[in-house]
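Fold sample X.
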Amino acid sequence: MQEYDIIVLGTGLKECVLSGLMSLSGKKVLHIDKNPYHRGESVSISPLEELYRKFKVPGPPISMGRGKEWNLDLVPKFFLASGQLVKILLLTEVTRYLDFKVVEGSFVYKSGKVHKVPATEDDVHGSDLMGMFDKRRFKKLLHFALNFDTRNSRTHQDVDPNETTTRELFSRFDLGQDVIEFTGHAIALHSSESYLDQPCLETLNRIRLYSESLSRHQSSPYLYPLYGLGELPQGFARLSAEYGGTFLLNRAVEEIVMDNGKVQAVRSEGKLFHCKQLICDPSYVPNRVRKMGRVIRVICLLNHPVRNTQEASSCQIIIPQTQLNRKSDIYISVVSYSHGVASDGMYIATVSTTVETGTPEKEVQPGLELLEPIVQKFVSITNLLVPNEDGRQSQIFVSRSYDATDHCERECEDIKDMYHRLTGAELSFVRSRQTSRSSEND
């Protein structure tokens, strides 16, 4: 009988990160995937012909170059240079297996035009997003956020971070509506307006995170792996294997065996694999998840940089919801041949948002118009699935579907939350001496 501490079903980003972390902490891990490849929902598709086949579109034309030069992420996500995913990568040393490149620009949409997001004093001086008085007020807010320390009341200026709402904070600095909009959505990366009536501490932390990430690389706060996001799950899978994790790809999962409401084993191709805990994505346990909404993503192939982005070979554009009278923002991520994901001179732009109406493609039209002319587009609409329970009773821990945002912070929150429920401990970004010593001795 084969026994494991943890069985992981699926090799998406979250599953592979958790598998790597569990293997690193000494757990015996078995990884099973029904697909013949790593990466699950967050797969990178190559060659280009495979993408055309998947979406049943004739092509590709010869003008696209060689198909094998393309790596297309179905769920592209940038990550902040000082963000949680970078901390996890450094903690686990998965950086050994990956190369990264800075995303060239961060932009926000206002009144039909794309503007650079100002997050440094130099940016503020040159910004056409605000007038002279607003620039002065915004700089004061930026200075306040960067110097704010919860442990030092002298930095608080009578702001109680757990009581003062973000709306009250912005009012205190007398910020205009335009400044509030790009600060909340393009710097603090809130995806709805509800943050305005929440305590301001989280928004202050988010502004500082964005600014610290930007200070590392100047052009934008975002990083992206060379050859696409699919490199990340593979890196964590290698980490898991290095610490004794076992992988079975292209294996059907027939049954999750339960006893008294608790997971006991997984049956795959007639064999029984016993475990104490189970990690999986929603596709393996459709009866344990519920639909919270839908996400539309439109992958667009371009042969030119996006207008008004300073000819950037990669960038992020956020269209705040209030610009279009929506409840949720529209996100545009742009990568290109410079990241090794497209043939020379070609670009991949993905437009995504949370679906709010019965005509999702109309909802993303403002984003698509910024990208014209588009050589080819591929539309996908997926359900946003979340687990019905926290997993502590059944010991089955299910990840959430990937949301419409084009950055990794919310996915990292899910990873941290699952880790806490799995282990009972908070995920620490400092490696223990014991772990470091054992890896040095290997």
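Fold sample Y, listed below.
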Amino acid sequence: MEVCYQLPVLPLDRPVPKHVLSRRGAISFSSSSSLFGAPDPRQLSQRRGAISYDSSDQTALYIRMLGACVVFKQLFARDVRVRSQVGFEPERRSSHPYLCIDFRTLHTRLSCGSSPADSGTEKRVHRLLSFQRYLHSSRLLRGIPQQIPLHILDEDYSGQARCMLEKVGSWNFDIFLFDKLTNGNSLITLTLHLLNQYGLVDLFQLDMVKLWRFLVLVQEDYHNDNPYHNSVHAADVTQAMYCYLQEPMLSKSLTSYDILLGLLAAATHDLDHPGVNQPFLIKTDHYLATLYRNTSVLENHHWKSAVGLLRETGLFSHLPPEDSMNMERELGSLILATDISRQNDYLSRFRTHLDQESLCLSNASHRHFVLQMALKCADICNPCRPWELSKQWSEKVTEEFFEQGDIEKKHKLQVSPLCDRETNTVGNIQIGFMTYVAEPLFGEWARFSDTRLSQTMLGHMGLNKASWGGLQPEQTAISEETETSAGGSRSKEIPQGSRES
């Protein structure tokens, strides 16, 4: 299976056009001029380091793919079709050992001669694929049967999904079932429904085609191979955010602009999450850690990725430029608040406001701060869900931790806290998280919004904590039995891991 990019080739004596076609996901341009054209210069965006154009050499197009750099020289004033294939190797030659995907451009080929009637078609610039889309399009190369997405749902399923949306404000909303009923399109369907329910599409005069394309790209840029940080998690956070927006303290104070920002931030808050945490990116010298100077690395990346999609789709291109810029900046402020390493700073500020009764929701900055706290609660509300839902999320996030730990062991890295499956269990991780992170946050949220929902969340968290405590002896026994039975095989795997790394 081949994925072809048809790139226009310019004569060496001609200047490069000063316009850019920005792609989603893994694409950025290193200068203000590029080979590709876009309909509106205001939509130019800096994207995440996969494709760039060096203006000092107008005869070369530099394509960087996660550390590898390939140069395509424009030797002829004819079209060049670039064919790329994905290969897998046991060793990773770049500086990112956890990525086992080696992008190798095998060759370039001059396009065959064509008639004048076909020249326009052949010179059409093909849409470039992001890293995530490229992987999906290359599944056959990995031996995985390619699944064709169903864009039109079966009537029975769509009917059941509509029935569920009628109760979208219920705290017992089963996002896993909803995702199945929407054929894996829970984030698109839920977000679009909420925007319509609030009347935001008409109020902000959003183009439905642009909005739909934006939501599709957002959902596609989540890595659904991640056990936890995937589009279903984003849909779950968006549904929780809607529940908080319905609370009396917020519903009577927030403006339509605040609501739009809150829903968009919830839908994009983990966009393009790689499935590993910030310390892992730092100790493997990942380019994102360098780009953001080891500070809120993932959250900055989520924000910039969301901005890139907004500009690419032109969702807010009809607004005055200053309004669009303000919206992007405030969207970033909300997403950056989800950095768990800054939890104590936000919690301390929230507690001070509540102690002094100084929150004034008629103040725009105070409303924005409350939105930040609401998004923080929505992001880590899994322990507050009913046991049947909370248990599934707990197992998923723990499996993602353990997968990172396995990678760290394989490449002789220090195993991050909570990521060693041999010394941790789902129960002890969850009990610690509830005790030191969730309970303080939701306790203060209940002080701010003392409603039935807040008490329900605290009640569920108490029951879930007790349930995990009751399961601890059982999990410990299973873990010890697994270690005993697998001891011999693990001792044989260590040299193999050493060779691979």
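Sample Y note: Confidence is low (pLDDT under 50) at residues 2-131, 138-155, 486-501.
Also: DSSP finds 19 helices and six strands in the chain.
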